[in-house]
Design goal:
The complex is a heterotrimer of chains A (164), B (664) and C (320). Helix content of chain A is 27%, strand content 19%. Chain A has 5 helices and 7 strands, in the order αβαβββαβαββα. Chain A has a 5-stranded parallel β-sheet with strand order 2-1-3-5-7, sandwiched between helices. In chain A, helix 2 links the parallel strand 1 and strand 2. By secondary structure, chain B is mainly alpha-helical. Chain B has a two-stranded antiparallel ribbon. In chain B, helix 9 packs across helix 12 and helix 13 runs antiparallel to helix 18. The radius of gyration of chain B is 26 Å and the shape is globular. Chain B starts with a helix and ends with a helix. In chain C, 69% of the residues lie in helices and 1% in strands. Chain C contains 11 helices and 1 strand. Chain C is globular, with a radius of gyration of 19 Å. The chains are: A alpha/beta (164), B mainly alpha (664), C mainly alpha (320). Chains B and C meet through helix 15, helix 16, strand 4, helix 20 and strand 5 of B and strand 1, helix 3, helix 4, helix 5 and helix 9 of C.
Chain lengths: 164, 664, 320
């Protein structure tokens, strides 16, 4: 038999026990001009990331950090979204798709830059396939620095939009 | 009766006019005369339906020995009224259709002859009259299918199949009716009075023989094989008449022979009818789902709906055979309402298919698309027909299916097990085909009209003549009226359904605008539902306008990629593919994969061709082997025909000797 | 307090039903999401999160694809309108709703079908491959769930000798022993499967999928934004609400107001909320325990539901 370190619990036990989510920190100030009032749907776009930020974003929505309790959610279509969650630096091949994805958003919309690459170019700033930084292409509303950013930082960044 | 005969006479005059008048005025004058004839027949039929009286007529002039007998009773009058209404719409359409082949002398005269025989069949009251006009109907429609045979070789094949099967059916009907009229005379009146005196075996044989013929005309599986071939190949106005009215004549025949002439019959007859109906409904709806040719899809959908009608007629007969006359009449009224609404919406859909073919040049759904913005009026009229066939509440399809369901539902009381099983199968068939019909028609509207045009022909579609729109609109009218206020026609339908059933049963269906089943708890008021729906929509629109943000036009979202080509859309084949897979055992699709390997090595493929076909399984598995066997027998028999006169004389001599020996 | 005029009572009751389902449908969705979150040992979004989402969506602009037609604009109205009409005439808090005489089981079934057809057409309207795919799959599942739904509904009609919904509810209240008959239990099982299929929950469809190849309902509405999306989402939520409410009221109708008092209506609302919450939690637990079925295994599930429904009818005939 395996000597797995994972605890095999039952769903009934999970339903009635305390959640393993860490308690929330203080609510950050809301970004000026947004009135999302507790409901934020974001479309994630990877314009040229190493996927480190994606792992942290997945962690942010996982049980330990649980960003969904503040009203944030990732959706499949930019039409359903309030904004984009962009990771990575803008590469040449993804510049066009990024532009089309932005066009597909209903107004008013926000752009969240997640990770150092999206915020200021990061370590891949001078690479050969790079078109430019995100700031040079769009107006960024929320910046989440870090390489990769801690899930708490991501959650706080999202809370600054949902105001919950 | 005079009015009706005047109507028939005007149609006959129209036939002559079609042969005589020159090209410029021919279509209009023929159409006017034909519409006048249909109008007179319609008035005569409605008079009979409202009053319930039977009018008769006899003359020994047309047919020398037997004479021609007409009798217009409510059952026949219902079908005459239906035919004349669809006939007027079709003639209007023909004027606007203006295709060269259909304006020729032969085509127009055949069309009017077809219409004349369709009007006369329900009114025939003797075997000779019925067979005369039945054969006239079959012959004229067969020739009409071949109207465009110089341009489409398939219409010749279609006409061959149609001719052979309709002759087979007619022979079967004739045999059955002859069996019934052996002891008595050949008028229906005589047959009716002497039917009880015949032995049960003769009655059963006669019913089964006539059932085969009439069911084949109504497109019942397995006698339906001609329908998907003939209806698409005929010109659209002819298809409309064939698919809405001619197939109803099959139903008329079954009700006339089973309920009226034979007075009800035994339970097992109606079990066979229900079996045919259920098989047709399921088979037809499945093939409608997987058809890509628009008119073939509509033809299979005719088989589907007529299957439901046959199921209703069968259940009604089964209930009557076990003594429950009231519920039997309820089910029969439901079936008749379905026949009438089917005539309206199927006529509208076929005329619409013809309009689409005129506008775009094709009837293949995989080549259409984007028509809603190019031919919006045709689309709107077509969609009314679609909403009716899919049974959206407040349209005629829903009201008729509801009534039929109520009839079946209220039969589930203390009956014997066979009756209950029959009703159960009927109910299950109705449930199964409802969803499949919805898929087929969402496919038609979604792939054919919405999205982007898939070919230049569809992109350059232009509106057709307004007369064609008027014709379609005329047929949309019953779809809406019968759906919103079905109670208006229920008394007439009840009188028609009364034929053959005992008159002493109290009426379970109340009159009024909606439908209310009296002591049985069941009502619907579609008018109020429609009003409620519009009220809700108005409220939502009002609430939305408070938001004051107009919608913005943008490019469609395609995952961030480049431009969207029409080829990226779903086609009719792909739309139906999940259902085709689920029902692969019934549909038996044939897949051909041809691989050409590269010269260098068998591991590399130079080209690959994939072909998937769903053809009619009944035709392939049941008819083709018989045809092959008969062809082989025919080829073998040719050995006897070696051209030698001596041998032929010897055959004659031997045959004569055998006859003399047998007679002695 | 009694309302003397039957028409006024019916209007009040139906309006109350619409409000309850319009708010309760999203709340049920939120409850199901909360159950899933707790099963994953997360806190999860609050129960009223879907209501927050709807409120925000109404403030955004609608977008229409360039090659689309009026169908894209009308479809949200049709689905919301047909679902609302179904709510108005259903016996959810009272056995005397508006248009009681037309409150027929088949009317409700075909009204819901009309809504599905409208959304399926909207999926095809924009001319995208995603929309066509979602539309094709959704209508296939709808076509296969339809027989199970109709036959289960017919089983109930046979037992009560009528297909009029308020009459069935009243008859079940009058005959409590019916609730435990095999016919009812089999029909309940069939209808639970149908409800899962029609509302697009696991194991038939994953409402939170991000992969277009695994989407069914979501793919059809991929083109909608802003207030259009709000109407479609609200329509889908109300569909869930009305299906759950009808299910509980047909099988466990105690609590439905039969008289003409306002207090009875409020008590009925409480009972309805309680019963539908229990059903929603049960469905959420089924969701948590199951993985999404392959698309071509879903017809097997629906065929199973169909067989259960046919068995229900046969049982009804046999135990007459």
């Amino acid at each position: 038999m395996s000597t797995s370190r994972f605890r095999r619990g039952s769903i009934a036990r999970s339903l009635f026990s305390k959640a393993r989510t860490e308690s929330a920190a203080a609510k950050p100030d809301v970004v000026a001009g947004t009135r999302l009032r507790g409901s934020l749907q974001l479309r994630h776009v990877d314009v040229g990331s190493c996927n480190g930020c994606e792992v942290e974003i997945a962690s942010a929505f996982a049980p330990t950090y649980d960003a969904s309790r503040f009203g944030a959610r990732l959706v499949a279509s930019p039409r359903h979204a309030d904004g984009l969650l962009v990771t990575g630096i803008v590469t040449r091949n993804m510049a066009g798709p990024l532009e089309r994805t932005l066009d597909a958003l209903p107004q008013p919309s926000v752009v969240v830059a997640c990770g150092d690459c999206a915020v200021n170019g990061g370590i891949f700033r001078d690479a050969y396939g790079v078109e430019g930084t995100l700031d040079s292409m769009v107006n960024v509303d929320v910046r989440i620095p870090g390489c990769p950013p801690h899930p708490d930082a991501i959650t706080q960044g999202l809370r600054s939009l949902t105001d919950r | 009766m005079t009015l009706f005969l005047a109507g028939l006479g005007t149609c006959a005059l129209a036939v002559v006019a079609a042969l005589v008048i020159s090209l410029e005025r021919r279509t209009i004058i023929v159409a006017l005369l034909g519409s006048l004839g249909c109008g007179l027949a319609f008035v005569a039929a409605t008079r009979v339906l409202m009053s319930g009286r039977v009018e008769t007529f006899h003359t020994s002039m047309v047919l020398p020995l037997m004479g021609v007998n007409f009798a217009l009773d409510p059952l026949g009058a219902l079908f005459v009224a239906m035919t004349s209404f669809v006939g007027v719409a079709t003639l209007l359409y023909v004027v606007g259709y203006a295709k060269d082949e259909l304006r020729s002398r032969s085509a127009l005269s055949l069309l009017l002859l077809f219409l004349l025989s369709l009007l006369a069949v329900p009114a025939a009251s003797s075997v000779a009259t019925l067979m005369l006009f039945w054969e006239l109907m079959a012959l004229s429609s067969m020739l009409l299918i071949m109207v465009e045979q110089r341009r489409h070789a398939e219409s010749r094949v279609a006409a061959q199949w149609y001719g052979a099967m309709t002759q087979f059916g007619a022979a079967s009907i004739l045999l059955g009716l002859l069996l019934l009229s052996l002891k008595s005379g050949q008028t229906f009146h005589d047959i009716r009075s002497h039917a009880a005196a015949l032995s049960p075996t003769v009655r059963s044989f006669a019913f089964m023989l006539t059932l085969i013929g009439f069911a084949s005309k109504a497109g019942a599986v397995p006698f339906h094989v001609w329908l998907p071939k003939a209806h698409p190949e005929a010109p659209s106005p002819v298809s409309a008449l064939m698919s809405s009215v001619m197939v109803a004549m099959g139903v008329y025949g079954i009700v006339r022979v089973g309920n009226d002439l034979l007075g009800g019959g035994s339970l097992w007859w109606w079990i066979v009818v229900v079996a045919l109906g259920v098989a047709s409904a399921l088979f037809g709806s499945l093939h409608a789902v997987t058809s890509v040719d628009l008119k073939r899809l509509l033809a299979y959908s005719t088989i589907d709906i007529l299957g439901l009608v046959l199921m209703g007629v069968g259940c009604a007969g089964a209930l009557a055979a076990t003594g429950d006359q009231g519920t039997a009449r309820l089910a029969l009224v439901g079936a008749l309402l379905l026949v009438v609404s089917h005539a309206a919406f199927k006529g509208c859909l076929f005329l619409g298919a013809g309009a689409i073919e005129r506008a775009t040049g094709t009837r293949n759904l995989d080549q259409l698309g984007g028509l809603i913005r190019r031919i919006p009026i045709t689309t709107a009229l077509f969609v009314v027909g679609v909403m009716s066939i899919v049974a959206v509440p407040a349209f005629s399809g829903f009201s008729s299916e509801w009534l039929l369901l109520q009839g079946l539902l209220h039969g589930f009381v203390d009956h014997s097990t066979p009756t209950l099983m029959v009703l159960l199968v009927g109910v299950v068939a109705l449930a199964l085909t409802g969803g499949l019909t919805a898929v087929a028609f969402v496919k038609v509207v979604g792939i054919g009209f919405l999205g982007q045009p898939r070919t230049p022909g569809a992109a350059s579609a232009h509106e057709v003549s307004p007369l064609m729109h008027v014709a379609m609109g005329l047929l949309c009218l019953p779809c809406v009226v019968l759906g919103v206020a079905p109670g208006l026609v229920i008394p007439s339908l009840t009188r028609a359904a009364q034929t053959g059933l005992s008159r002493s049963v109290a009426r379970p269906i109340k009159t009024g605008i909606g439908l209310s089943l009296g002591h049985l708890q069941g009502t619907i008021e579609p008018m109020l539902l429609l009003a409620g729906f519009f009220a809700v929509i108005a409220l939502i629109v009002a609430a939305k306008s408070l938001l004051r943000r107009p919608a913005r036009k943008v490019e469609a979202w395609r995952g961030g990629g480049d431009s969207l080509t029409p080829r990226m859309q779903y086609t009719a084949t792909s739309y139906a593919e999940p259902l085709q897979r689920v029902f692969a055992d019934v549909l038996r699709p044939q897949v051909d994969v041809e691989v050409t390997h590269a010269v260098e090595s068998r591991y590399y493929e130079q080209s690959l061709s994939y072909e998937s076909r769903v053809d009619d399984a009944v035709e392939r598995l049941a008819y083709q082997p018989v045809i092959h066997a008969m062809t082989r027998a025919g080829i073998a028999a040719r050995r006897v025909q070696n051209g030698s006169v001596h041998r032929y004389l010897a055959f004659g001599f031997i045959a004569l000797i055998i006859v003399v020996v047998v007679l002695a | 307090m009694n309302i003397n005029s039957p028409l006024a009572y019916a209007i009040v009751a139906s309006l109350l039903q619409v409000v309850v389902i319009a708010l309760g449908g999203p709340l049920l969705l939120g409850l199901m999401a909360k159950v899933r979150a707790r099963a994953e040992e997360r806190v999860g979004a609050p129960i009223h999160q879907p209501l927050r989402d709807l409120r925000k969506l109404f403030t955004k602009e609608s977008l229409r694809a360039r090659h689309s037609s009026a169908v894209l604009a009308i479809a949200p109205l049709v689905i919301l309108g047909s679902t609302t009409l179904a709510v108005v005439i259903s016996p959810l808090v009272t056995t005397h709703p508006l248009l009681r005489s037309s409150s027929d089981l088949f009317v409700i079934v075909y009204l819901l079908l009309t809504g599905s057809i409208a959304v399926a057409l909207a999926g095809l309207d924009a001319g995208t491959a995603f929309g066509g795919m979602g539309s094709s799959r959704a209508i296939t599942i709808g076509a296969l769930a339809e027989p199970a739904l109709l036959v289960a509904v017919i089983a109930l009609s046979i037992q009560a000798h009528t297909s009029n919904l308020p009459a069935i509810v009243a008859a079940t209240i009058a005959h409590p022993v019916w609730a435990a008959t095999p016919l009812r239990l089999l029909a309940l099982a069939a209808l639970v499967i149908v409800v899962i299929a029609e509302t697009g929950r696991l194991p038939v469809d994953n409402p939170h999928s991000h992969l277009e190849l695994t989407m069914i309902h979501e793919a059809m509405i991929l083109e909608y934004a802003g207030s259009d999306l709000a109407l479609v989402t609200l329509g889908a939520a109300m569909r869930l609400g009305v299906l759950c409410a009808l299910l509980v009221n047909l099988f466990v109708p105690w609590g439905v107001a039969t008289g003409s008092s306002l207090l009875g209506l409020l008590v009925a609302v409480l009972f309805l909320a309680l019963k539908t919450s229990v059903l929603a939690v049960a469905v959420a637990l089924i969701e948590v325990h199951s993985a999404k079925l392959r698309l071509f295994r879903v017809p097997e599930l629906l065929a199973g539901g169909f067989v259960l429904a046919v068995l229900a009818v046969v049982t009804g005939l046999v135990t007459r």
